[in-house]
What does this fold into?
Amino acid sequence: MSTKSLFRFVEGSVINTFTSSNEPETYQSPAAAAPEVYVCKIMGRGEAMDKAQVSKGSMDITLPLDDEFAQHLMYSGVDSVVRVDIYVKDEAGDIETEWRGRLSKTSPSRTELKATFESVFSAHKRVGARKVFQRTCPYA
It folds into this structure.
């Protein structure tokens, strides 16, 4: 059974939509206000893994190193959060959300960029500095 992958990258208010299939796809994701066109792009991805430890669940997405979006990911600032939603379209035309994550690191090689995304649920399990309610809290 052949499936098509749709990738929706969100960085602040900028949204990039791509598909690894040979033809563009149109889909209105639950997060979108209107249907979006997913343009063809040479890219690959690893398998979605459900790990016993949520913080170790990750997915690698590979792009050619000379690709404009790959270079943007490689040079994006540390403070910016890049999220990805991966949807899968089967032969019947049904589309399901397969995986969601956020960019944790990029690893360039001679020919490609490997972008590692961690599961969106891993941030909730990680120990570290978090915003607390106090006088300097940015929320009202």
